Structures are given as structure tokens and as C-alpha cells.
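Contributing: when you submit paired examples, paste them exactly as shown. First protein:
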Amino acid sequence: MPKKDLISVGNLSPQEVEEIFLLTDKLKADAADFKSALAGKTLALIFQKPSNRTRVSFDVGMYQLGGNSVYLSPGEINLGVRESISDAAKTLSRYVDGIVLRTFEHKNVLELAKYAEVPVINGLSDFSHPCQALADIYTIREKLGALKGKTLAYVGDGNNVCNSLLYACARVSLNMNTATPKGYEPDGAVFESARATAFGCGAKLQLTHSPQEAVAGVDVIYTDVWASMGQEKEAAKREKAFKDFQVNAKLLKLAKKGALIMHCLPAHRGKEITEDVIDGKNSVVFDQAENRLHVQKAVLIKLLGNRNGR
């Protein structure tokens, strides 16, 4: 059978997302039952960007599943500079059972997956962050139960995380309201594709430039940094553009009582989100972070394990 990759949530079917979540449930209920699921398997971690959650969760995840990981820093494998992506992909495929790439440009993930003979997982690109979005939706499912009829409001930059959340919400019948400043909307093709999928699954995706409109009566409020890695030179411009998009106590009052607060981290406290909100009783930010580990373990088993998912 041809190998499978995880490049974008947009490449997954609703059934495949549900299968990942059901396996995650089992992993959280009895991790010991899976301690040899990937025995003898090795995962290469190619990171062109700094990382806390992504690197640690994949590293620990492979260990807990009985496998190993090899970290390759930018200086060790300078993709496209020291060695072509195609040559690196073909070489690593002779050594390891899977590859995670965290990169600035999405085209690098696509090229790596094209030439690699083993599964490739997108650990973050400028276009997509599938592992984050899957963990986010799993967390909402864990906290709220059935997702149909619930609504997530995303407030901030229409970035890679936003793109992935649009795809993910559409596949689990979760409504999503997206509020961004003008000029910072999510990818147009992503939004239209996700909206079509959502319609078929009985959900609605809406785009607005009003945070207040987006969060009115919602079950979940989600935000992310205003300037991501690689956008440091735009920080001052972005801070001005996003000044009315802060998730704070005033905005929270417009949502349903007890609405979940989410942030993919790292957070710039006092900018996109205030201290009292991110540390408040409604925050599930660190549950999100923990679930990166569990969901990614399910992904690893699905892609690197036996065909029956174990």
C-alpha cells in the first residue's frame, strides 16, 4: 500500500479525523497498552524553526510508544542549501520510519513528502499546522462532548493555525467564526474549501472583521500571536492593526457563560490575550498543550504502525 503523510488537515476525511480521536481516547485511557506499538521504529525530527511543544511531544511520544527519535537541527541538515530536499528525503528514507518537518515554507513539506519513501508529518509550515489543529479539536471534544451545534470563535491573525482550524472544524461539524483585521484574513482558497466541506457536514464557517460579532454566544474563544516566527519585522505594524482584537474579560463576557479559552502557545501575555483570561477558570490552554502529545501518538501509530492501527 502507498505510504500516507499528514501534510494538512484538508487532506483528511471526517472519518480519518474521528479514527485519530478514537485512538487518542484509547491512548489516554491506557497508555501502557501501547508501550510497544512502535518498538523498533525511528522518527527523524527536522526542525528549521525553534520549538517547545512540537519537538518535546513528538520526542516523548515516540519514547512512550517504544520507538526512538533523532533530532536534526538547522545546522545539521540545512534543507535546500547543504543538500537538496529530494536527496535528504531519499537518504533519510533508508534510515528512519517517518519524518517530521517544521519549516518556514510549506513547499518544503510538499517536496519532502514527494521524494520520501516513508510517512512525512508537517510539524508546522507557514500555511498549515495540522497537529496543532487536531489537538485543539480533540480538546474541545473532550471538554464539550458532541461538537455539532457548538461554535468556536477564532480572533486574530488568519495564519497557519487558523487555516488548519478551518479545515478541522469543517470535518467535525463544529461551527467557526473567524475575526481578523482587514488584510489579515485566512487563505481564501482554504476558507472556501473548508466552508464547502462544513456545509456538507451541517456546520457553518463565517468570516468577519468584528471580534464582538465573532464571539457573541460562542462556546469557545481561540487566539494566537499577532506576529509569528519570521514576521518579527512586521511586529509594530501588526500590533497597531490588531489592537482591537485582544481577547480580554470584556470580550469574554459576550460569549456563553463558561466558554472555553484556547491559545496554541507561546503566548504574548498582555497583547493578544490578557493574563486574567489565559490564567482564568475557563482556560484550557495547557490541556491543549498536553493533548498535542496524545493526538500525535495516535497519528504516529496510524502512519508508522501496523495497518490495523496498533
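Second protein:
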Amino acid sequence: MALNKNFGGISRVFNNQNYRYYWVGGATSILGFWLSKLALGLLTWQLTHSPLWLGVIGFSATFPTAIFSPFSGAIADRYGLRKIALFAISASAIISFVIGIFTYFDAMTIELLAILVLIQGVTLAFDLPSRQALVYYAVPKDDLSSAIALNTTTFHLGAFIGPALFALLNPFFGISFAFFFNSFTFLVFAGALMAMELKPSSPRDAGGPTILADMIEGIRYTYVHPGIFAVLAITLVSHLFIRPYIDLLPAFADAVFNAGENGFAMLAGASGLGSFAGGVWLSIRGRNEGLTRILCLGIFGSALFLIIFASTKSYFLGLICMGALGFCLITMAVSSQSLIQNSVDSTKRARVISLSTGIAVGFPAVGALVLGLFSDFFGVQGPTLVAGLFCLIYSGWSVRRLLSQSSSLELNLK
């Protein structure tokens, strides 16, 4: 299979059979994820009509990744990335099917839903690091940046297709269909991973270090590696204070812009469109050189546009800021993942990526709760403005350290 070379890095990654398997399975799974995410929110609202429960369910779905990521990474490095990914994906498929069954027979309660979602959040902590680490083995190292960018772009494309498909199918099949479909897409992705031709991993010495020792080694390696630590240090604050903006958009649309539900959809759509554009650009660009500088610009840009967004009452300017913010955040996310994947020791890949994933997935959940709490007292604009200012100041302080590590992060040393 050969693609037009005018598509740059996209052409090169799709010319790898392993990546084609990986992408088809991942794209199918992403579609199931978005259908399930929308169905989960609607089911929670129908059961409780409580914004608090919406927050609790959302928090339960993602925060376990931050808690269990060091352990899940150590497990994956010890027993194999694909093996752990298949186990976690299969468990997620079962949980989605159970949610679908209880929903179909009108037997679901909000307490049971919270428990099931929390368990699925734990499986996600094992799934995501292994899944992301496998990308390294699906493409040549020179094409790693394009592969990661294309994966991220596909995820945001699912944010457009998923809601449209849910709106089309839900009136005919009901909410439970989304959970059944999500379960099926997990199995499709599992099949795709099994079809990939990967070199067998070397068996670990039975008398070697314990899982706890592996966890500590992974954390220590991340801390002492100057490049990887610099990447995580500068992105951590962005995950905590900038990325939660998406959870506050309904409040901005209603209380600040007086734009209602359609206004919220337009703001979210503008953000998604910016993310899609940034992901496509980096996919075509397809090289590691310059990613450190792009990461720094993405951090600065996202903080700046969030500050402007939180300061204005102009809906039109808000839409522009959302598009720019989405573009900046996706360039930050893709650059940071690419730089870490490019420079990490392969024997510690899952452990380091699990820490990165735990920060990227878990910290926005914490930030959303904190900003939401302060917004209840001070309104949504003030806390968001302070968060953007803090991130801008912190980035200015930490960017010099990151740029000093650009050579070791960007060069193909391994």
C-alpha cells in the first residue's frame, strides 16, 4: 500500500502494515469511546438531573489513571506491552457490555454506574500507557512524530463524528446501544493489536527486581533524565490549569456569552477544529527537529489565548480564542509525546509513558474540580483568568531549561 508522497509524514506511516492495523483498530475504538462518553453523560443526567453527579462520573472515569499509572507502567514493561493492552482492553469491553445490559433492562442506578465507571477508569490506566507505547514499534523511529500526531488527530476527528452518529442512532436504538457498540470496538482494537507483527520481548529474570522496585526505578529514571523531566515539568501545569477549560465551556456559553446550548456547541466545535488543524499540520510535518520549540510555543500560546478568552464578553472573539487554543494545545500534546517517545530508554518505555499519561489524563480532572469549585464562588471568568496567568508565568520560568535539552530530546540517539 503506497500513499501519495505529497502527504509527507502521513504517507510514510501508512506505508507500514503494523501501523495500518494499529490505526484502524484505534480509530474504531475512538468512535466507540465518543459514543459511550456522550451516552454516559446523558444516562447520568437522566438518572439524577444533578450537575454534581456529572462531575463525579467524569472524575471517576479518568482520575484513576493518575493514581495507577506508575504501577501499570511497571506491569507493562515486565510482562509485555501488547499482553497488558489486550488484558485491559478485554476488561473494558466486558465493563461496557455490563453497563449496556443494566441500561437496556432499566436496572441501572447512579451508584452502580459510578462503581462500573470507576473500575473502567482503572482498566484505562493499564490500557493507555501500553497502547501509546506500542506506537513506537509500529513505525520507524523517524516517523514517530507523524504517527503520534495522526493518532491525536484521529481522536479529535472522532469528537466530530461521534456526536453526529450518536444523534442519528440514539432515537432508534436507545442509550444502551452506545455501550454495546463501545464494547464491540474494544474487541476490534484487540484484534488489530493481535494482527501486528512485533518482535517477542525478552523474558524477565524470575529472580529480578520486584514490581515495586520497577515502579521506583521508572519514577527515578524520569526524575533524573533531564530532557524527559523538563518536558513533564512544563506540561504538568498546562494539564492542571488550561486543559480543564473544556469542562467550563457550558458555563462560559451561558453565563458569559449568553449563547445557550448552540453557543456551547459552537465553542466546543471551534476548539475541536483548531485541534484537528494542528494535528494534521504536525502529521504532515513529520519530523522531530524543532519539536521542543513548538512545544514551548504551544504552552505560551494556549496560556495567552485562555487569558484572552477569560477576559472577553465578545462571543466572536471567544470563538477565535477557542480555535487558537485547540491548535496550541494539540501541538503541545503531540510534541511532548513525540519527544518522550524519541528519547526514553526502551526498557523503561511503558513506565515513563504511564507517568506522562497519568498526568495528561488525571490532572485535568483535578483541575476541573478545583476551577469549578472556585467558579461557584467567584464566577467562571476570574478563576480561569488566574489559571491562565499562572501557567504563562510558570512556563516563562521553565522554558529555558526545556530548550537547553532540545538536542538530546530531538536527535535519534537510540
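If you have annotations for the second protein, write them as plain sentences, like these:
The longest helix spans residues 17-48.
The CA atoms of residues 145 and 287 lie 6 Å apart.
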